[in-house]
Amino acid sequence: MRKIILLIVLILLAFPASSVQAQDAAPSDPVYIVQSGDNITSIASQFGITVDELVIANNITNPNLLAVGDELIIPGLQGVTGYLVTETVGFGSSLTSLAIQNRVPKQMLTRLNRLTSPTELYTGVNLIIPKDDTRKKLTNRFLLSEGQSMLEFAVLSGTNSWQLATQNQLSSVSTLPEGSILYLPDGATTYSGLKALPLGEITISPLPLVQGKTISISIHATNDTNLSGTLTDHPLHFFPDGNGSQVSLQGIHAMQEPGIYPLSISLALQDGSIYTQEQMIIIQDGYYGKDPVLLVQDDFIDPAVTQPELDWLNSLTAPASSQKMWQGVWVSPSPYSYLDCLNSRYGNRRSYNGGPFEFFHTGVDFCGGEGTNIYAPAAGTVVFAGPLTVRGNATIIDHGWGVYTGYWHQTQIYVKTGDVVTAGQVIGLVGTTGRVTGAHLHWEVWAGGVQVSPLDWLEKQYP
Fold this sequence. Notes:
About 15% of the residues lie in helices and about 30% in strands. The protein has 9 helices and 28 strands. The protein has helices at about 1-15, 40-45, 50-60, 95-100, 105-110, 150-155, 160-165, 305-315, 455-460, and strands at about 30-35, 70-75, 85-90, 125-130, 140-145, 180-185, 195, 200-205, 210, 215-220, 225-230, 235, 240, 245-250, 260-270, 275-285, 340-345, 350, 360, 365, 375, 380-390, 390-400, 405-415, 420, 425-430, 440-445, 450. A hairpin with a 5-residue loop joins strand 15 and strand 16. Helix 2 crosses helix 3. The protein starts with a helix and ends with a helix.
């Protein structure tokens, strides 16, 4: 009897239970790979089918136990094969380019993603793309030069016109306009005589853009490449990162209206002309809460007092110095943990003296009584140290690349303008100066002239 029980246990261990039963799918069945954040309802909605259809097709016993990496057959997708994955559309991509790169028909992408306006594909949206290991992705992109024919391009690329047209999903081999982008397979071949795109690979992180976040835009380019750009009417400043790319760090305002905005990146060419690439990009809501109504002296919310100070602060934090002074993840400016000792978080909407919630908290408030040490979170140069009306005794540090930090309401300031500070150095003490309701450290981070979420800099390493 004991031998039989042991045998049963061994069989159960060898074949564990699963909410999604193993599929012996035919190669022609489209299979979706479950991604982080997916659930049975969102997946069904994504493909325009019902939850019941998805459950039946996959013999799912418990829809609540889907795991990242599970494979789900998607019923009703005639003509679609292989694995289906979700990708975030990057800057410079279009429906046509994504179809060519992944070697799938554009009409299939349109149908899979139920696109009503395929010409409008915004940076930051998610797209379902069929993947097949037998189809190597095309990544080599070249421009058709002035006066260059398709035949000449084909000869220089070691292909023929028909092969070129097939790879790029062209209906004919007729002449294309100058500046058309054509894709070629990866390989060891050096395509001499072909004109590469002036801008290299462009990486934006994180996508989609969210209110209050610091955005990193990285472009593969040499140090002497003159790059510029704009996003939400703010100029982008690019600096070499030492790894063959140039980087711009730009903040998204906490009260920027969610929607679609143009991102423009320009490159000054050697002949004096400007090559510009522009695409619409999505900015999403940060879903910030509301602080309790704050009661302060009327003088502290009088625009005649607050606006000049804010204008001065905007002017001070606008320049972007070329020397990046920080390394790695920043240290906390407070001895108290931000995980359990914050009086108010960044981005929270605020009302003063019962007025509308038309303001927002521009930083984070660390708890801690008067006289608590304040630390520099990273190396930088002090650009201001002194009294302000609203912000009280204040210190502002320039960390380079358009990144600044501010420390308000201090009882004492230990540094002066021009001092170079190091990470962890004590720069002052917590106090109650300026517009406050109690002793605390208000800490701000600016990126590209915009206040951003400071806690991100304590959790993530920026270039």
